[in-house]
Amino acid sequence: ETGVTQTPRHLVMGMTNKKSLKCEQHLGHNAMYWYKQSAKKPLELMFVYNFKEQTENNSVPSRFSPECPNSSHLFLHLHTLQPEDSALYLCASSQDPLLARSQYFGAGTRLSVL
Amino acid sequence: TQLLEQSPQFLSIQEGENLTVYCNSSSVFSSLQWYRQEPGEGPVLLVTVVTGGEVKKLKRLTFQFGDARKDSSLHITAAQPGDTGLYLCAGTTTDSWGKLQFGAGTQVVVTP
Asked: Which of A59, A69, A105, B43 has most Cβ atoms within 10 angstroms of its Cβ?
């Protein structure tokens, strides 16, 4: 148990569906992150939130829409995705937004887009 | 081009053997971390190193940060099947504050 919980663990969706991924951290951290992990590729940083404010959007397509209502919760809203968006989506948190070190990850959501 | 190059990409050894995996870059890192990821799970933080030349030990795992803070290694002594996993290095540079850069990982398989 890392203190970061992601739901759902698995998601299958069609290209016309709308779904949301949820992340909750119980560590009292100030920064939260969304990453995409595809086979044989490094983790790709998608979004960074520091103290609920988005500070990084790493050229992510608009079909991915993040939301951070408070410092403990992070959502990733998905709509009209493409099959190449199938991947493991990981949420992480860290205490210090500037240093970004020592990040704690959730177990991820395995997304399949049909 | 990846900022962090990990080698080898895959390593298969027998229980009891030693192994070393490497993480290299042409950039200087203000800190570097190692994570282990098991199938169906997220990466789990093993160690953070911040000082050039620093060596940290975690039971049978030894982590070293290069003097110039451009590279790191992870050495496992007497590997066990429970050491099986994807080992990831990640770091922050002075021109990427707030962002962790990851290597592609080394897949380690330890067979009984």
From this structure: B43
